From TrEMBL, chains A, B:
Gene3D superfamilies registered for this protein in UniProt: Electron Transport, Fmn-binding Protein, Chain A
Identification of the protein by name: Pyridoxamine 5'-phosphate oxidase family protein
Pfam families listed in its UniProt record: Pyridox_ox_2
Species the sequence originates in: Actinomadura napierensis
Amino acid sequence: MEPLSATPRTSLGRTPERAGTDRSVLYEILDAGLICHLGVVVDGTPRVIPTCYGRLDDTLYVHGSTGASSLMTAPAQEICVTVTHLDGIVLARSLFHHSINFRSAMVYGVPSPVTGEDEKLAALRVVTEQLAPGQWDAARHPTRKELAGTTVLALPLAEASVKIRQGPPSDDDEDHALPTWAGVLPVHQTFGAPVPDPALTPGISVPAHIAAR
Amino acid sequence: MEPLSATPRTSLGRTPERAGTDRSVLYEILDAGLICHLGVVVDGTPRVIPTCYGRLDDTLYVHGSTGASSLMTAPAQEICVTVTHLDGIVLARSLFHHSINFRSAMVYGVPSPVTGEDEKLAALRVVTEQLAPGQWDAARHPTRKELAGTTVLALPLAEASVKIRQGPPSDDDEDHALPTWAGVLPVHQTFGAPVPDPALTPGISVPAHIAAR
């Protein structure tokens, strides 16, 4: 497996010990996410858009959105896709060492619009299964018209960085004697009980692939 | 209360029904978040960085980070700060209408570095209390040296947009007869039980303001 790239912008200046260099860690962070934040430059200024995505091998597929439409008219521009998992709030004895435990991945590159019906279907399958595993086989597939109205961008995982902070607070030695509680408040993303569409035909029960999450 | 701005980039083109125009909704979305995604342009390309923030009245304070350091050397550039809450996965009868329920806020503007010890302390208090309410009074305050080593940016809530999707899937009428389950899988952010620092002095119990979350 190729290690991660080490271009200047994917090398961490301030806290190099938080950098991941293993490609498998990049995959884990991306595969565990439900949404990404897509950064684009519009008229010279940054725009950050939450949207859906999926990964297959070394390609990240990003679902079309309001922001992606501006990308489609100028497809040859660079984007940044960031996926962040907030794992905990780090409560230190000093305010200065308060922090967050997190895992984040940033991917840079020039995306290509996915064209061709078969290619688009394959890419949409990746995006759908990332958000809602099992739904590709459960729901009605896109019509030609729906496919034409859907934008998917493909971004190679060629230039990427991973940043991770885990573990207890990093208080200064002289602060350890303070009578202040210190530790981590874990943060989790959880699923609630499925809420049926009020228009659902009576008698259709929640399928196992949804109930099991 | 001033309504939200309606500049071209804060007006939603594709799904105007998802736009919020009430400033109180902007406040609610920002106040409920733990981290934001900060977008900056570095050497002409976008960079999206997760970081901590806080709001006081119509100012958003963004905590210094690896990315913010590049902002400090070129402070007169525009940034975009996005806060997103993922509330649910929308499972439709058709793949085309799969979606997410979410609340997001995007704020644009040119940030100012917060300077002056009193101003910086006040801004840090806002950021700390957003992430860890109650900790400002519980933990050791910053030294002058720590203050000098901390970057906080102030961004006015002058140009902002809010986007919200809630509720059941929006399947086409002709798809309602399909024998496919449809509804929403709620997504929640929850806190786990506090994990004490292994180096914690024995006998210090978790304070109520942490345990109560």
